[in-house]
Amino acid sequence: MVALLLTAGCTENPFDSGSEISAKTSVSGRVILLNSSSSEGVYVWLEGLSLGVFTGPNGDFQLRLPSPSSQPGGGFTGSANLYFYMANFQLDSTRLVLRSGEFLYSQGELNEKGELLRPRTLPKLLNLSTALRPSAIPVSYDSTLETIVTLQVLAPQVELLAYGAGSNFLTLAAIQKINTAQAWVSSLYSGFLQIDTTFFSGTYVFTTSYLLDPYFLTPGDYLVIPYIWVKQDHIPRGLIHSLGAAYEKFDLNYVNIPFQREGGRLTVTAD
Q1: Is it true that 26-122 and 126-269 share their CATH fold?
Q2: Radius of gyration for the chain, computed over Cα atoms and rounded to the nearest angstrom
Q3: Which of 257, 262, 260, 261 is nearest to 43 (CA)?
C-alpha cells in the first residue's frame, strides 16, 4: 500500500496543474433483469468500437476504452449506442458521445463520473427450462435421450427461430461440457428444417428424442442447450459476431450467447 502525506499549506495538485487527473475512458452502471433472481451475465456492448463486457453478480459493469491510438482514426469521435443484451429479455440501449477517444461525461445519461444516471431494466420475454430423461447415463449408453423443453412466453408475443422436424419446433440442441479447462461443444439433432414462428403469451412444451452412440460423451457433467433464437428488432449483427456466433444461423458458438435457462444438466458416469 502506498500512502500520500498531505502537508498543511499545500494548495497545488502534485500530479497535475489545472487539468483533470484521470482520463474519461470508462463508463459504468447497473443492469436489472426483471422477473429474474440474478442480473449476472448481461452483455454490455459498445458499437463503433465493438467493445463488450458482462455484468457481474449484482448486474454491475464497467467498460473501459482502449488507448486513443488504438481506436479508429487515432481516437474515436462521434456518438455510439451502448447495448444491454440478454437473449430472452428485451434489448435496451443508450447513446453515448465520444471525442478524441474519450467519453464526454455529464452528457446524456452519464454523470460527471461516467456513471449511468439510472439502472437499465430489461423486461423478460420468456422462460425456458429443459428436463432430461434420463438425466444420468453411463459412458457406454446406447439408447435415446429425451428432452422436454418448456417454453413460457411472458410478452404478448415473441418471434422465435429454431430448427425442427414435422410438428416439433425444437429438434436441435448444443451439448457443452461443464467445468473443463478446454471448451467442448457438440450438437444433438433430429431435424434441420429452419422454422421461424411467432408465439403468443402462454406455455408450450416440446419433446424430442435423440439417439446417443456409446462413448459419444466422456464422463463428466454437461448442459443440453436447446437451439433457439429470440428475434428482436435492432439487434446489431456486430454484437452477435463479437460473441463469436453466426447471426441467427446454426453455429456451435451459439453457446456464447447470453441466455437465462433452467435445467438441462446431464451427468455421464464411467461404466
Answers
A1: yes
A2: 23
A3: 257
**Strand, helix or coil at 143?**
coil
- Give the integer Cα–Cα distance in Å for 153 and 234: 20
Distance CA 246, CA 168 (A): 23
Domain ranges of the chain: 26-122, 126-269
CATH code for the part of the protein at 26-122: 2.60.40.1120
Q: CA nearest 29: which of 12, 46, 17?
A: 46
Rounded CA separation 120/60 (Å): 10
Strands (E), 47-125: 51-54, 60-64, 78-85, 92-99, 102-103, 120-122
Which DSSP helix (H) or strand (E) runs through 4?
Answer: none
What digits encode the pLDDT tens for the residues 90-149?
A: 999 999 999 999 999 999 999 999 999 999 999 999 999 999 999 999 999 999 999 999
The type of residue at 11 is T
Q: Does domain 126-269 have CATH number 2.60.40.3880?
A: yes
CB 162 within 8 A of CB 229: yes
What are the pLDDT digits (tens) for 18-75? Answer: 334 457 999 999 999 999 999 999 999 999 999 999 999 999 999 999 999 889 889 9
User: Which residue bears the cell 440474478?
Assistant: 38
Residue 240 backbone zone (phi > 0: left; psi -120 to 50: alpha; other: beta): alpha
